User: Fold these one by one.
Assistant:
Number 1:
Amino acid sequence: MNAWTNIKTITKRELGAYFSSPLAYVFIVIFLLLCGFFTFFIGGFFERQEASLVRPFFDWHPWFYLFLVPAVGMRLWAEERRVGTIELLLTMPITAWQAIVGKFLASWLFLALALALTFPVVISVNYLGHPDNGVIFSGYIGSWLMAGAYLAISCITSAMTRTQVVSFIISVVVCLFLILAGFPPVINFLQQIAPAGFVDMVTYSFRRVPKRCHRFAGFNFLSLGDRLFALHHQRDFTHSSSGLRTFHAKETIRNHSLFDRRHHWDAGVGDFV
């Protein structure tokens, strides 16, 4: 089996796991309700009297993803550890990066499905006016990349911890920092604890809203690399521990076989006597 076949198999497995439980449907319903409520009521879609979705719709997505995306990504690796299937997964004839990419793509496609189901908002704005659909399409692409960045962080925390709740809390804290990184209180705090070059990079990067797309893509690749490094060492430990378990299993089977033979031999001698 080639690499793409392994990735596709893991992706199908994870997508099936999502939709086999109420988690997927609860996430989609909550996300759609929040989008509709904040767009038409809190965001002042009708009061603005302009055919645009930038302010009333896309400005709320970072706050939606702050809690919903970590809820989706917290189970990817923590659940495997809790159930005990991560050792079976890492000892299969697949590489660590194939398992990582397969799980990440499954969750990212699930988020893309949830985002695509907001199409009634686009239909509404086109019915009421004449918006620039190119800008709307670019907004959807940027929102999907942002969801991927949040998801990559959630995957890292899920791989580092054994509890889904701990993974969720750490992911929310890190993603909240990314949202607030351009605000003056955060910049003043960073100036006290971080080098000036790092503060300048954060200030320039997070205040340039049009450049967020490739920043989110960079976070995705960086996070995938971090998970690959962590799981590579975990895979080595899994192979060594599985070898010890295999040795003990063989010894147990051999002892049981000797016991059965001895039992049958004693029974045969008793019958003979």
Number 2:
Amino acid sequence: MQATMNMDTSAKTLNTQSSLKASEVEEIIYYDFTHNEKLWSSSPTSRYTTTLGESLIATVNKRSKLYSARRVGSYDFEVDFVGDENNEVEIYDHDGDDLLAAPLPLFRRTHKIHIDSDGVMYCGCCAFESCGIFCEHQKAVSDFIYQHLNLTFDGFTKHDIALRYNAAYMHLAYKQTTPNYLNAMFHHLSKNKVKGPRLQVKILDSIAIEEPSTILPASLRLKNYDGSKITIDNEYFDNMHTLTQESTMSNVAVPDDFEVIFSQSIDDTEFNFQQNVDARSALKSMVDVAYADADDIGEEAVKKMKFILSEFRSWCNEKRNVCRSKEENDDRVYVPMSKGGYKGKAKRVYNTYHMP
């Protein structure tokens, strides 16, 4: 679709592009449904999910090994990122002068997992609520619980992910060729959405309950900086901690005439406008509206518009005469396109034979 197309052509182009995209997606889903063996993944969901969904699941399963879980309540757990042996972070010794070479700050984060009475796991990162796939923190907690049972957690099943990643649902649901009982089952599943991944085993009472970690400010959770050397003026930055404490910005003294000064500074500002303005692009909508108004009102509006345009042309000619007062040809008149006669002094050149 291009900007020069009219409305009908643009609509037809959009419909064609949408049909092509829908056919492409349908072909991908059909391939995922008929070729359900994914040799690159060994998770329990590999035979039932689409390629996109299984690739996300494989990434989560791989990253879950970088996290460590601990129990902080009867049904509450905390997960910390521990990384691997090659994950050492060098602390940057900043002196306040070399700010351009300073690395981006890295923070320690603790994710909280809660398991309800039905075994559904909820994580503070809200990955399942946004993506429909369990997160590495939930996978790490499941590995931790299964490890205390002397079992191996193979992974979550197809019942622990959103329905949109199920290849059978994407290919068969709500089609006329699909049997009615299958459509009814798919409709029931779509109405009863999965709340989250479900833990299939009981949590042993023998798992020790540790003290939950304390909530620390960002400066004390830095990995690659010494937090004791960083100071933040809380008087102006307390409103950044709205999730943990109330803002104190309301206690900061603000001059009574602050808004007046700000408004005056805006009014007195001179903005640099673009010099070479495309009048056709800038005024096209206004001119089109003027044409429509003239057609609506009638002959009187057409005469009025013609008079205003004639006045505008006279004003433009006066401006040009002032700008070229030092030029030799002061009696030239600029006319639009071919509506008027040529009044310049230069003679017409018909071919290169007449050129000097």
Number 3:
Amino acid sequence: MADEEALLKKGAYNLVKIREYSSERVDQISRAIYQYGGGKKIAECIERLRIREKLGCGNQEIIVLSVGELNKNKNHEAVIRAMPLMENQNIRYFIAGKGRLKNDLQKLARKLGLEHRVHFMGFQKKIAEIYQCADIFVFPSKREGLGLAALEAMASGLPLLTSNHHVIRDYSVDGETGYIFETESELADKMTLLAEDAVQRTAMGLHNRTAVIGYGLAGVHERMKNIYENLEKTNGKNR
């Protein structure tokens, strides 16, 4: 276990360092790294920089992302209200989704002086690109059937900040997949913690890529198979 943790931290550190490079620097070293099998990671980093630049974000800014309809249940308001509680001014909040609360949330952001740090992206067809350029995924829902967006974020290698809803806790594990919060103040503290620790963010993201596999099609099929097999065994005993 100690060896696995050491390897995870080493991999996280390497990813963090390469993400700190400018696009020019990445371009300079990309040919050499391709020769040693690192071409895929370099290509991902270049694409990540391109998307961030398109969003108006530098590489040193922290992109916190939520994906979901703008309604009361998705609770984006909690994240907006948590923003002024943080000293770190490099954190920017992007919401991908549309809904009837857009105007209310925009008014709240303006009231709190956050109009330049809270961004309403509307519906995004190429949502995978947005996940790729983000640093943290926040899922503040008051209730969920499962929470597909959070699972997509895990598959994209993002650490999670989630509400303490019982269904979300099936895959959101405090201190492993990211952090769970109860209040806006706690959310601000956890967001700051992840924003200021790039190695931890990346390590949790790498963990999430593996942890989410059980929620894929193959994993679901295996779970359903086990359920039916157990039911058959139980029915057989009762006959």
